[in-house]
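Issue 218. Parser rejects a valid record. Input:
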Amino acid sequence: MEKLSELPPEILLGIVNEKLRLLCGDRNELFYELDITPQLLERKLAQFGYEYDMITNQYKRH
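Output the parser choked on:
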């Protein structure tokens, strides 16, 4: 899923949060669904100020 990591942060965020909302009960399911390592996704989103919120099950700006 190297192409996923090349997406602009806003598009990546939209895809990730939609998957979390519709298909994945938590981010571990998301990592499996997207076939992406947790480190890669977390690092990419953190670069742009996003982090996972367990309560809402989505990535938000911190």
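Fixed in the parser; the record now loads. Helices lie at 2-5, 9-22, 27-34, 38-46.
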